[in-house]
Design goal:
The complex is a heterodimer. By secondary structure, chain A is an all-alpha fold. Chain A has one helix spanning about 5-45. The radius of gyration of chain A is 20 Å and the shape is rod-shaped. By secondary structure, chain B is an all-alpha fold. In chain B, about 75% of the residues lie in helices and about 0% in strands. Chain B is built from 7 helices and 2 strands; from the N terminus they run ααααααββα. Chain B has helices spanning about 5-30, 40-70, 70-105, 110-130, 135-150, 155-165, 180-225; strands spanning about 175, 175-180. In chain B, strands 1-2 form a two-stranded antiparallel sheet. In chain B, helix 2 (about 40-70) packs parallel to helix 7 and helix 4 (about 110-130) runs antiparallel to helix 6 (about 155-165). The longest helix of chain B is centred in the C-terminal third of the chain and has 43 residues, at about 180-225. At the A-B interface, helix 1 of A face helix 1, helix 2, helix 3 and helix 7 of B.
């Protein structure tokens, strides 16, 4: 199997997976921030 | 991370179809007579180019709609589609280069199709980078929409480059017919479907991320008022 073919298909698999992972991590962080923010503001309202 | 049913269905379907297409590329498609196994790069190379162009077309449509309606959701879609489309165009350029080395004897040559692809790649990288630089959100969206419409000119230009100018880039579709055997056509079709699903799954996730970011900014603004 030619090395260039293996390299190309490695790219085809890793690049979309990398983007999916990056979006997933950013979403998780954002959801944590949202949760923290809403619980903090709810606590503030209670006080 | 909170996921909904569409998330899971799109992710599962795209992974299944992608694996099937990968299997077809290596075990179903016949070996090409002159290039040998290296020709197998072509299936995913063309599929990623198609999805990249489609992504930029969505950016173009969303940008035009944003300029007409000024609705924030269209701007979000344009931004998300550019980011996802750029990944596919990056794969196209890199895989094309990897194919060119054993076939043309060089990784890169400044012929019309490749030159337009390089210009296109830099234009959309600039789009993604510039989006984070403008402080005013409204101004940023308007500028990005005009840029998204103008940058789309590179898509038809890239498509017609191999028809208008003398080029060494292979032309698979000529005069409405395909220079491929039926098994090669089926593999190409499977690759196109697989990449379209991967694009849809990534776009859906990216749009959701942008909406969550919007929600967070709105909460912060509400709190500071």
């Amino acid at each position: 199997m030619p090395i260039h073919l293996i390299l190309a298909y490695t790219l085809f698999i890793t690049l979309p997976l990398g983007l999916a992972l990056s979006i997933g991590i950013r979403r998780r962080k954002m959801q944590k921030k949202l949760k923290r923010w809403t619980s903090n503001s709810e606590d503030g309202k209670k006080e | 991370m909170e996921t909904d049913k569409t998330d899971r269905v799109l992710a599962t379907l795209s992974m299944l179809i992608f694996s099937a297409a990968l299997g077809m590329v290596f075990f179903y498609a016949p070996q090409e007579a002159t290039m040998g196994n290296i020709q197998r790069i072509f299936y995913f190379h063309l599929a990623s180019a198609w999805v990249g162009f489609f992504g930029f077309f969505i950016t173009f449509l969303a940008s035009v709609t944003y300029l007409a309606s000024r609705k924030r959701s269209w701007d979000i879609l344009a931004h998300a589609s550019t980011e996802v489309g750029l990944i596919f165009i990056t794969m196209t350029v890199l895989s094309g280069s990897l194919w060119a080395k054993p076939v043309w004897g060089t990784y890169w040559t400044w012929e019309p199709r490749l030159t337009i692809s390089a210009v296109q790649w830099f234009l959309y990288v600039a789009y993604v980078m510039l989006r984070n630089l403008t402080p005013n959100q409204e101004q940023e969206a308007r500028f990005a929409a005009v840029y998204g419409v103008a940058a789309f000119a590179t898509v038809p230009l890239s498509w017609f480059a191999i028809r208008w100018w003398r080029t060494i880039h292979p032309q698979i579709l000529s005069g409405g017919s395909m220079a491929l055997t039926p098994r090669m056509q089926q593999t190409l079709l499977a690759s196109l479907i697989a990449f379209t699903f991967v694009y849809a799954a990534l776009l859906y996730e990216r749009v959701k991320l942008a909406h969550e970011q919007e929600k967070f900014i709105a909460l912060q603004m509400e709190e500071t008022r």
